[in-house]
Amino acid sequence: MRRAVILAVVAALGAGLLAGCAEDSGEPAGGASKGGGGGKGRTTLTVGVFGAFGLKEAGLYDEYMKLHKNIEIKQTSIERNENYYPQLLTHLGSGSGLADIQAVEVNNIAEITATQAGKLVDLGKTEGVQKDAFLPWKWAQATTKDGRTIGLGTDVGPQGICYRKDLFAKAGLPTDREAVGKLWAGDWNKYLDAGKQFKTKAPKGTAFVDSASGVMAAITGSNANRFYGTDGKIVYKTNPAVKEAWDIAARFATEGLTGKLQQFTPAWDQGYANGTFATVSCPAWMLGYIQDKGGAEGKDKWDVAAAPRPSNWGGSFLTVPEAGKNKDEAAKLAAWLTAPAQQAKLFTERGSFPSAKAAYSLPEVSGAKHDYFAGAPIGQIFSRAAEGVPVQIIGPKDLIIAQNLADVGMLQVDQKGRSSQQGWDAAVKAIDNALDQ
Questions:
Q1: Tens of pLDDT along 129-158?
Q2: Strand intervals (E) in 255-311
Q3: pLDDT, tens only, 265-314
Q4: Cβ contact 272:290 at 8 Å
Q5: Cα distance between residue 285 and residue 214, in whole Å
Q6: Which fold has domain 158-313+374-434?
Q7: How far apart are CA 110 and CA 96, in angstroms?
Q8: The CATH number of the domain covering residues in 3-156+315-366
Q9: Where is the signal peptide (predicted)?
């Protein structure tokens, strides 16, 4: 499973809003723009994105062009990030074929920041950009060691725990979201304990969580130190935080608390439709996915509580290549698109949760509720989560490490009954092979 690819697709579903299809031109992300678009003296700015990124769909391009009559914006989209990102690296290497603005997925931002920063504009110096308006950890992800900020965050993926109130009630657990959050507040081991309690009276054919891998991803996402150390070296094999995440998730599997599902597969989708698991670690962007797969039968049965510890999964950035012919205008557009007001609108229209913390006090965010999830105050829940996420050390091969831990290692423990150690050894071997170590 490729989470970065899936994110590009399902982020478009938003927090309860179904997205339109991606504009997939089938063309490269580039095509350096030229002034005089449309023959009317306008400057054409091109934006290269992956998937249904949401900026166009939310009407932000149209709004900007109304405010700036001399600007025309054209977007090209490659549906899958796994195809988009290699092209972006190729174009950055050659200095040609680039759009004026290029999107970068969070799993790629560390590599871009470490290896391509010299080919990207320092957006931190752009007029109107305020560092303090963004979440500190989001700003840090696209900032080089010498202080150049080469990407402005569009969205983040703060996580909660989505749970089925009906299944909780049948298992004798509280259903009020505040009381549910208190069951596991501050400790992922308490989440495990709640699962054990659920199992004693679980409705027939149901499990506490969807998958052990989902639990592991949520726990690792709540730690500052994960796969890389401060010196840039891979440390996941010896990092206590990763070992804790692995051990807790493996216990979910070995103690029979999971639905033994792999996320973003037909079986997982069917689990939502049939109500076969009671909880799932859910970023803000996943709510729309749950609504889509759970259907009308799931309305008001699902709710959202705070996760044991603040965690993040997902998010993207906008960058401006130095090779672009309209760098100044592109930087202004990138700054405007990621400003708090626009991020709040993107959240309202598309469900992409703002990376600009200054947007959290805006009524569109602070007052946001989700009808499908029993009117849960999602603006407040996910704002608190986002503000609590630690500044994480991210590395260029984070995605490879995470994928193999989940889909090679933990999946064997969860679905094939392998021991925790056997699963770990299989994952390490796969990662070593992938990284040529």
A1: 999 999 999 999 999 999 999 999 999 999
A2: 277-283, 302-306
A3: 999 999 999 999 999 999 999 999 999 999 999 999 999 999 999 999 99
A4: yes
A5: 15
A6: D-Maltodextrin-Binding Protein; domain 2 (3.40.190)
A7: 22
A8: 3.40.190.10
A9: 1-22
